Amino acid sequence: MGDDKILNEEQLSGTEKTTENQTPGEKGDITSINTPFLSKLRLNVKLFLLLRTVFFFFITIITALFIIIFFLFIVPILQENASVKKTEIANNKDFKKGADYKKQVGLLTKDIQRLTRKYNTYTSGLSYIVINTTDNRFFLYKNKKLIREGFCSTGSLMMLKTEKGKAWVFKTPRGKRWIQGKITNPSWRRPDWSFIEEGSPVPSKDDPSRYESGVLGDYALGIGDGFLIHGTIYKRFLGMPVTHGCVRLNDEDLEVVYNTLNIGSKVYIF
Amino acid sequence: METEPIKKVSGGKITFITLICIISAALIYYSIMSMMSPERELSRLKSLPGVITDEKNPVDQRIFTDSAYLKMLRQKSFLQSRSLMAETDSIYFIVNLSDSTANLEISGVSVHETKIKSFRISSILMKGDEYPILTMFSTPLTIANSFATIKKEPVMIKMAPKDTSEYKPDVMPDTSIVEPVNFKLEMTNGIILYVYQEEKEKAADRISFRRFDISDRVTDTWNSVKSVAQFKIPQYHPFIKLIIPRSDAKIIYRALPKKGQIAVYR
Questions:
Q1: How far off is chain B from A218, nearest CA to CA, in Å?
Q2: How many domains does chain B have?
Q3: Residue-range definition of the domain harbouring residue B8
Q4: Does B170 contact A at CB distance below 8 Å?
Q5: Which of A135, A174, A228, B226 is 20 to 30 Å from B15 by CA-CA measure?
Q6: Is the pLDDT of residue A140 over 60?
Q7: B24 touches chain A (CB under 8 A)
């Protein structure tokens, strides 16, 4: 009868042996918890093996998860809490009364005043315009005050490629520029890409078909390298990145911008 | 006479215990090496040129323990860094942790401002010796690499039509697409600036943030593990983490040049 309760592991797995006197609880693996429940469970060989496999599977998963969490999250926390020598604030009153301290503080105060003055001179009291190419908005300033803001259209970031390998990127240049010219009733001299984009043959440089009037609005302000701030007939596209690099404004905004900015006025594009 | 049976320890048990010991030892070793890295980074910062005080005109070191003096020094360091950047024509980024604002500036003119919802800063930058940290911040931080969940310049390629019959006018761009915006800027001096979007209501936003964060942690951990395996203290990167609105994060990331500059006031 007693022999019935002894589990012959050789029969179960074919790899390990148990002695006659050895109870399942003494088998030596980590599941060796000698309880009547487990002893009964071991009698059901298939179920026991399945449960043991599941148990080891979960233990492995949990261990792996712990190691991952340890490396990715716990160590950075430990790093941040590692002792770093902190500056001890003494605020020594006797030292503060000394000439050396006063001299150093005096030098530092002068430096701060000089740098602050210098920095304040950068923001001009003259008129300037700020153009946000991500949101397609503009902000017009006069005497350091915002006097007008609204939508504009900037470069579409489209790259036009030809089969011959020529390419143009329609992008509004970022950074600091200035107004280099002001024109009323401008006409547009169509560049090569304008014809290539439509699949039309490119005419000669002075061909009359290159000139179009009325498409740039009533005014245009040059900001260098052929880029302009001008009007548009595509008003529904304002607030969207659709241009070939120029900045388009609606008629009312363009008039205010034209009348506010002078040649030399700064244009900040970001 | 009955003898007590000798308890046999199975091979599996020995392997298991050995494995546990090896893993534990490796984890402890890795933790110790990692915890040593911030202190080593601080030592490196102290040894940088400009940090060592002038030997000809020595300054009483007690001055660096005076809070009023340190506050002024912090102000000077920030102004100095900003002034250097203002002399260029390019776009730079100002992070003012003291009043929780972040600005884009061009030549000293603030062109875009955003409120920082919350921020986290490395203990080394917060608690470390003031003087070397302030010296480091007195010159602009320059971006070495950047990683983001959005493209820096979303250039679309369009092939030119062969003739007018193939020409199709441009359609209106779809501006309703909202991409999650999270990015990190690695500076040349080892500092990392993380910018995360504030909005996390949508599942896509949370998934994007988790993916970005986990991939960053995995890369960092992998580099650390490689160093520790060679018995070296891993590289520690002091960080500044900012949470700002998505639209502002997008503007800042797209506006900053690839090798752009940053000034930090804390």
A1: 24
A2: 1
A3: 3-159+174-265
A4: yes
A5: B226
A6: yes
A7: no
B166: in domain:
no
Shortest alpha-carbon distance between residue B175 and chain A (Å): 8
Residue of A nearest to B130 (CA): A87
Instruction: Using the CB atoms, write b or e for A206-219: b if 16+ within 10 Å.
Output: eeeebeeeeebbeb
Instruction: Give the whole-angstrom CA distance, residue A45 versus residue A7.
Output: 9
Give the domain ranges of chain A: 92-122, 128-269
For A128-269, the fitting CATH number among 3.40.30.10, 2.40.440.10, 3.30.420.40, 3.90.320.10 is 2.40.440.10
Average pLDDT over residues A239-251: 96
Q: What is the pLDDT at residue A24?
A: 45
Contact residues, chain B, for A104 at CB < 8 Å: 59, 63, 69
The candidate with the shortest Cα–Cα distance to A120, out of B249, B86, B6, is B86
A75 touches chain B (CB under 8 A): yes
Residues forming beta bridges with residue A148, ordered by sequence position:
A140
Q: Residue B129 CB: number of other CB atoms within 10 A?
A: 19
Interface test with B, best of A19, A170, A176, A238 (most B CBs within 10 A): A176
Q: Taking Cα atoms as reference points, which of B34, B16, B52 lies closest to residue B223?
A: B34
- β-bridge partners, A268: A130, A176
Contact A160 B158 (CB under 8 A): yes
- The verdict on a CB contact (< 8 Å) between A21 and B42 is no
Residue of A nearest to B247 (CA): A135
ipTM score of the complex?
0.86
pLDDT band at A206, cuts 50/70/90?
confident
Q: Is B160 an interface residue toward A (CB < 8 Å)?
A: yes
- pLDDT at A101 (0 to 100): 87
Q: Does B154 touch chain A (CB under 8 A)?
A: yes
Look at residues B37, B49, B102 and name the one whose alpha carbon lies nearest to residue B263: B102
> In degrees rounded to 5, what are phi and psi of residue B66?
-100, 120
- Per-residue confidence (pLDDT) for residue A20, from 0 to 100: 44
A82 and B127 Cβ atoms separated by less than 8 Å: no
| Residue B76 pLDDT class (50, 70, 90 cuts) | very high
Which residues on neighbouring strands pair with residue B106, listed in sequence order?
B91, B109
